[in-house]
Write a structure and sequence with these properties.
The protein is α+β, with helices and mostly antiparallel strands and about 425 residues long. About 35% of the residues lie in helices and about 15% in strands. It is built from 11 helices and 13 strands. The strands form 3 sheets. It has a 6-stranded mixed β-sheet with strand order 8-5-1-2-3-12. About 25% of the residues are buried.
């Protein structure tokens, strides 16, 4: 039996427990998926680098302050009789310069870094490079993917390939990707951490995202914005494959006889709220479906949002347009109520609908393209060739221009209309 004096003391046991707990946490953290800091896409990698650089810049202040706190507490402790005691001390010019200059320099660095990367990583800006060594070829054509957030699933339309999928995104590696993103009902958020940052999806609007995958990967994309009961299961498989494998996958989707065609009728069934939806592949897709989704006029006989806006710009239709406004409700309850109201219209309702519908083609408008061209010079330290903000001089020869009358607005052409879809 061990003598009492050789037994571990309680304080020693507590310290040992803390060390073991810290080691166990370190081991657990080493198994974490650090996809945000080690992604497969160049855009996400630049965003991850931005996080690391910003953290290091802030640690330049945090680490010295924490070290100084420990140092001062130890040096000026009550038992240290040799410390220089100055009860009347209240100012030091050197210390003031250090306290204010160091944070100011770090804020300037963070501000410059934020300004440059905000423009370079603008999701509406086309890609200027595949990776840090490979610029985008002049004749490179991005793969276009139209993304629709549904309740509670994701629809991906490939207009160039003429196919569509649900809860499955397959793209080639090394090729620029151009995403057009919208929603069928409530606001949502499209996020593939291994590819790029999250982008919001909103009904009646279109947002854009340009990205690229640099290596093959099987990963997960999901909704990063709460959107209702099925939000937690709103995930989709994401695969980046070689060009040959992407062509093979496209051919398999087209050859799928059970896939059918995603037209307006099929979309209205797919749009209904559902959870944990398995992967669905459509061998063909209506070319105007995405435009109708954005313009909120998939339902037969429904006036498109862009056409109603064009009519309103010319003065509107007064009382006759109220019913058509009701039909533009994008939440499921408003949409169902509008459908019931016009399902079996009486004579008066028929006259109102016929009058308004006679003024439009019931065709979706086109969303304006707000993409920004990639800069020719990608050296971030000189702002990547971005133009400096221009201000309007208030004096001198340009003062005359301020007093000139503004031009009259141009009348809207009846034959063409453009959906006023917000860039967010």
């Amino acid at each position: 039996m061990r003598p009492p004096e050789s037994r571990p003391k309680p304080r020693q046991l507590t310290a040992l427990a803390k060390v073991l707990a810290a080691l166990s946490l370190t081991g657990a953290l080493s198994a974490c998926n650090t996809v945000v800091l080690d992604p497969a896409g160049d855009v996400a990698r630049q965003q991850g680098d931005l996080v690391v650089i910003s953290t290091l810049l802030m640690l330049l202040i945090i680490v010295p302050v924490m070290a100084a706190t420990v140092l001062f507490a130890w040096r000026y402790r009550a038992s240290n009789k040799e410390a220089n005691y100055q009860p009347d001390w209240d100012h030091s010019t050197q210390l003031e310069l250090l306290i204010w200059t160091a944070p100011l320099l770090i804020i300037i660095c963070l501000g410059a870094l934020t300004w440059v990367t905000t423009h370079l990583l603008d999701p509406y800006r086309t890609l200027g490079r595949i990776d840090h060594e490979t610029p985008v070829a002049v004749n490179a054509k991005p793969l276009e993917v139209e993304v629709v957030a549904l309740d509670w699933k994701w629809l991906f339309i490939y207009p160039e390939q003429g196919v569509a999928t649900v809860n499955e995104l397959v793209v080639p590696t090394g090729r620029p990707l151009s995403f057009k993103i919208t929603s069928s009902s409530v606001m949502n958020s499209f996020y593939v951490p291994a590819m790029a940052g999250q982008i919001y999806a909103m009904p009646g609007m279109e947002t854009r995202l340009h990205a690229v995958f640099n290596k093959p990967i099987d990963t997960i994309g999901f909704s990063a914005n709460y959107s209702g009961a099925g939000f937690s299961n709103m995930r989709f498989a994401t695969r980046a494959v070689s060009d040959a494998d992407f062509a093979k996958w496209t051919a398999e989707v087209k050859a799928n006889k059970t896939g059918g065609t995603l037209d307006r009728t099929a979309y209205l069934q797919l749009e209904k709220p559902s959870e944990k939806v398995p992967v669905i592949r459509y061998a063909a897709v209506s070319p105007d479906l995405y435009g109708a989704i954005v313009d909120m006029c998939v339902e037969p006989g429904k006036m498109c949002m862009s056409e109603m806006m064009a009519l309103d710009a010319r003065g509107g239709l007064g009382k006759a347009g109220i019913r058509n406004v009701e039909m533009l409700a994008y939440d499921k309850h408003g949409r169902e109520a509008a459908a019931r109201a016009t399902a079996n219209p009486n004579a008066a309702v028929q006259r109102e609908l016929a009058w308004v519908r006679a003024l439009c083609r019931q065709m979706p408008g086109s969303a304006p393209d707000h993409t920004v061209k990639a800069p020719e010079n990608l050296r971030s330290l000189i702002g990547a060739g971005l133009k400096a903000p221009q201000s309007l001089p208030l004096f001198g020869k340009d003062e005359q221009a301020l007093s000139e009358p503004k031009a009259e607005p141009v009348a809207i052409n009846d034959a063409a209309h453009s959906s006023q879809i917000s860039r967010n």
